[in-house]
Amino acid sequence: MEFLDKIKKKKGSVNKEDVMTVEKKDRRVLSHVPDSSNKRTNTERRGNSNDNKNNDYEAFLKESKSGIRYVTGFPVHMRSYSKEGPKVSGVGKVVDISNTGMLVEVGREEFSALSTKTMLKVDFRVVPGSMPEGNEMRVKQKVKVVRTFITSDGKFMIGINFGKELHNYAAANKDRFMFVSSVILIAFTIACVILMRAESIIYFKFNKLLYLYSMVTAVYLLSRYIFGAFYRPKKVDPDFTPGVSILIPCFNEEEWIGRTIESCVNQEYPIEKLEVIIIDDCSTDGSVEKIKETIERLKKEANGKYDLEGRISYCVQEKNAGKRDALVRGAELAKHELVVFVDSDSFLDPFAIRHLVQPFKDPKMGGVAGRTDVANTYTNALTKMQSVRYYIAFRVMKASEGLFDAVTCLSGPLSCYRKEIILANKEAWMNQRFLGHKATFGDDRAMTNFILRHYRTTYQDTAVCSTIVPNKHSVFLKQQMRWKRSWLRESLIAASFMWKKEPFAVIGFYMGLVVPVVAPLVVLYNLVYVPLTQHIFPTAFLLGLFLMSFLMSMSQMLLRKSSTWAYGLLFCIYYELILLWQMPIAWFTFWKTTWGTRMTPSDLEEAEKKRLRKEKNSKNKSSDNNNVE
């Protein structure tokens, strides 16, 4: 069969592009937006009453997400199992798949044999990247044939409904095994860590500073996981729908900005209470044209529905002034009480805004961070490591801070703020200087500090977006260096007022500040100084590192049921070998204003300085050669 030959040919090839899930387009434009033309909600269009939606919104969410179909192309083996008639079998290609069923393309012979059957047995493996992370697994179950047809271009299709929905199938098979295994291994790991720290208490008098650091580190990390386990997101109140303005700052993001805009517009949220504003920071690529094209396409396809004329707009900065200026301009244009910051390479879940606003029922809540997943997880080993790191950073670290309403970084990909706070601090934010140097990055941490001084900040795990992460080490390392510089700067600022917060939040913050700053010195002492001077192999230290990295991987397995869990171990090794040593550099270069991953005005200025230095050195070298002659 031709399509199977194509699959075999592609199997051994290396894909240099980002590997991402592809959601099948719904027949309706902006399928999650309430239709203002007939005044019906999405739940009513799906056959549910408004009362049902109010009484059980979680069931509505589950049903809606189960119907999302993903475009794919992996093979599936099918055979009949009915006692009547001869048994037949065949191989097909899964064209698209959802939690409830799939559409399979087969050859002419398979179509003739299988299309007459009402029940089949299928055997296939959900390929990583074909569905959202955590769904990769082998499936063997009975299914029902619900339709068969031939497309206009002569392709033979069989529509199938699963006997057991994939999330239920996973819970009864793969997830149960991963849950039991991870719980046992996490309990064992924690027990080992506690025993090792008991040793630190016994030998404390021999090296007070070192053993104190090891105990503080263990308490800090274990407390994050414990508090994260107690965290619960705010439940959705369908009647709580404050006005929201989504702001998308854009600079040279031609590739992804269209998808970002569409995901922000396609929200299950009252249309009269949601607007989208794109602020282009004087891009030098085709971003502005892409923004215009996307807006016009959405308006045309909507054909007067969804009130897009009054709900989506864009503006272009007169000059490249930076992300902060772009966001402030957007906030000044916003007409609603809450503003949501979304990065131009991040894509919102259709229910993200509905979940993100829930904590604002508390009048003292100033800002809320959503969860950021990695969109291109399965591209290569680097993106898989980042996927584990992102999930633990949000679901464990931010969740533990959110438990006490003291999240220290409302992340750029998806965060919501009260507009009045943004506008009240706009001048200080745009003109922020630290030790005489203008701050050009770390926008999210800087704004979080302004809010956290007088308001609460929290985390909403059910408000989800996905973002594109670097798939090359050179770009990733530049990003991490920028993040460390901004973390160091803003953490020192936060240290001046965090002592006023809830006691557990205070203790966690200051431990979290000391541990990474001192870590390079501790690693050098244990892995270099001790072996060289005392001829002792650092077994205990390496075992401690392994246990903490193993705890991270097992938490990924427990919470996400993802096949990427092993990359948590690899990330920790990568961190100790490479990322850890960026911290000392950040100590002495925190004042740098270049991004490194994009050509901002600071980067252009730095590049020009390097060019002039290179020319000067070249001239001096030429002059020296002439003198020698």
Briefly, what is this?
This protein has 629 residues and is an alpha+beta fold.
Compute the number of strand runs: 18
Question: For the report, how would you describe the main beta sheet?
Answer: 8 strands, mixed
Shape, please? globular
> Percent range for helical residues?
40-55%
Low-confidence stretches: 1-15, 38-51
Query: Helix tally?
Result: 22
Strand content: 15-25%
Commentary on this structure:
There is one protein chain. With 629 residues, the chain is an alpha+beta fold. Helix content is 48%, strand content 17%. The strands form three sheets. The protein has an eight-stranded mixed β-sheet, with helices on both faces. The protein has a six-stranded antiparallel β-barrel with strand order 3-4-5-8-7-6. The chain has a two-stranded antiparallel ribbon with strand order 16-17. The protein starts with a helix and ends with a helix. The relative contact order is 0.09. The model is unreliable at 1-15 and 38-51 (pLDDT under 50).
Keywords:
single chain, 629 residues, disordered N terminus, alpha+beta, eight-stranded mixed beta sheet, six-stranded antiparallel β-barrel, 48% helix, globular, 22 helices
Topology:
Elements: H1 2-11, E1 22-23, H2 42-45, H3 50-55, H4 57-66, E2 70-71, E3 75-80, E4 89-97, E5 101-106, H5 108-114, E6 119-125, E7 138-150, E8 156-162, H6 166-172, H7 174-202, H8 208-230, E9 244-250, H9 257-265, E10 274-280, H10 287-302, E11 312-316, H11 323-333, E12 338-341, E13 346-348, H12 352-356, E14 365-374, H13 381-402, E15 415-418, H14 419-424, H15 426-430, E16 433-434, E17 437-438, H16 443-452, E18 456-467, H17 473-494, H18 503-534, H19 539-560, H20 567-577, H21 582-589, H22 601-628
Parallel strand pairs: 9-10, 9-12, 10-11, 14-18
Antiparallel strand pairs: 1-2, 2-4, 3-4, 3-6, 4-5, 5-8, 6-7, 7-8, 12-15, 13-18, 14-15, 16-17
Helix pairs in contact: 7-8, 7-19, 8-13, 8-18, 9-10, 13-20, 16-17, 17-21, 19-20
